[in-house]
Write a structure and sequence with these properties.
Blueprint: E1 7-8, H1 19-30, H2 41-60, E2 72-76, H3 79-93, E3 99-103, H4 108-119, E4 123-127, H5 137-143, E5 148-152, H6 166-175, E6 180-183, H7 195-198, E7 202-206, E8 217-221, H8 247-262, H9 264-285, E9 289-291, E10 302-307, H10 312-321, E11 324-325, H11 341-345, H12 350-354, E12 356-360, H13 367-383
Parallel strand pairs: 1-11, 3-4, 3-5, 5-6, 6-7
Antiparallel strand pairs: 2-8, 7-8, 9-10, 10-12
Helix pairs in contact: 1-8, 2-8, 3-4, 9-13
Length: 384
């Protein structure tokens, strides 16, 4: 391997497009499908393709699709839009209730939506986070009241990979009949994600974390529990998410989910092997290195390593020069030199937060790449 060929360890920010997905999308584009809302023959053909993608994707994600009680799958432009639609749309649907509860480790698309609602007078409460990166379910229970319209907690964290105790969260919320929205963007394919089994009211998914196209996501909602729209326009998707749907993106998303989920067990084993190799080598060779949330249940591909006493921005830049692509937290917050809200919420020591980097592996990473990455990381950190 040439010394400086870049090694991509930032798969939580986005993944490369799977060649078969690119092929599928090219075929859909070449077919010249028209607007699926048009009533003529060509429009009906596009509509058929769109609905077949929706149904296939829904089946893969565990939606109830039979009979008149079918769950909803609204295609969106990605995870951010889907989270906004849930947070704001469920508030609009329950205007008589005014409390929103979110965890302290949410993606910026949830946190910023909640902050915006707070500026409009909504009572936003934040669940405390335990030191292991999971949310504090006792604290959640103490925050729920008659006025609560939604609890939003992610399925698995994008920075630490920590899997949240969703069963416990749902059983608490069920007792008080409060709906649960889960951001499952990082979780799909990396841990079991079956919508009906999870017992949640709604969830967000995104294509580009599983080698699908960027710009494609979905909000999934239980039958009879659709949010109110936050965009206004035509009657597409029951007018809950208006706008001309892209059949190509829907087909690409579905193909990516099909490919990834068909081999999810093998993928997980591969990713755990790579992650464990990376973590144990780095910790063995560098005294300052600590793996965050190591004891908690985690996604197989996410590793947050703190290099105590060093500045994360400096290591990130040095690693970039050395050809290792990683990040200091959520890509949606990058460019901000603020400490990671997730790590702050976990109550970690300042030198740990200051020196923490996220390495996220993908199915196309090889053992050789990880070995080379370990050598580069250890060399860079030793120099710094």
């Amino acid at each position: 391997m040439s010394t400086m060929a870049p090694i991509y360890l930032d798969n939580n920010a986005t993944t490369t497009l799977h060649p078969d997905v690119a092929q599928t999308m090219a075929e859909y584009n070449q077919r010249g499908l028209v607007n699926p809302a048009s009533q003529h023959q060509l429009g009906r053909e596009a509509r058929h393709e769109l609905e077949s993608a929706r149904e296939k994707l829904g089946a893969l994600l565990g939606l109830h699709l039979e009979d008149i009680h079918a769950d909803h799958l609204f295609f969106t432009s990605g995870g951010t839009e889907a989270n906004n639609l849930a947070i704001q749309g469920y508030h609009l649907a329950n205007e008589n209730k005014n409390r929103l509860i979110i965890s302290g480790i949410e993606h910026p698309s949830v946190t910023a939506s909640a902050q915006w609602l707070a500026s409009q007078g909504v009572d936003v409460q934040v669940i405390r986070t335990l030191a292991n990166g999971q949310i504090d379910c006792e604290h959640l229970e103490s925050l729920i009241n008659q006025d609560t319209f939604l609890v939003a907690t992610m399925l698995a964290n994008n920075e630490t990979g920590v899997i949240q105790p969703i069963e416990q969260i749902v059983s608490i919320c069920d007792r008080y009949q409060v709906p649960v929205h889960a951001d499952a963007v990082q979780a799909v394919g990396k841990t079991e994600v079956d919508f009906r089994q999870l017992g949640i009211t709604s969830m967000t998914v995104s294509a580009h974390k599983i080698h699908g196209p960027r710009g494609a996501g979905a909000l999934i909602a239980r039958h009879g529990s659709a949010p109110r729209p936050i965009l206004h326009g035509g009657f597409q998707q029951s007018a809950i998410r208006p706008g001309t749907e892209s059949v190509t993106l829907a087909a690409g998303f579905t193909k990516a989910a099909e490919l990834y989920l068909a081999q999810q067990v093998e993928h997980r084993e591969h990713l755990i092997r790579l992650r464990d190799k990376l973590e144990s080598a780095v910790v063995a060779q560098l005294d300052c290195a600590t793996v965050l949330a190591r004891s908690a249940p985690r996604l197989p591909h996410t590793s947050n390593i703190a290099f105590r006493g060093l500045d994360r921005q400096a290591i990130l830049m040095a690693l970039d020069v050395a050809g290792v692509c990683c990040s200091t937290g959520s890509a949606c917050a990058s460019g901000s030199s603020e400490p990671s809200p997730t790590l702050v919420a976990m109550g970690l020591a300042e030198d740990v937060i200051e020196g923490a980097l996220r390495f996220s592996l993908g199915i196309f990473n090889s053992e050789e790449e990880v070995e080379e990455a370990i050598a580069r990381i250890c060399a860079v950190v030793s120099v710094l």
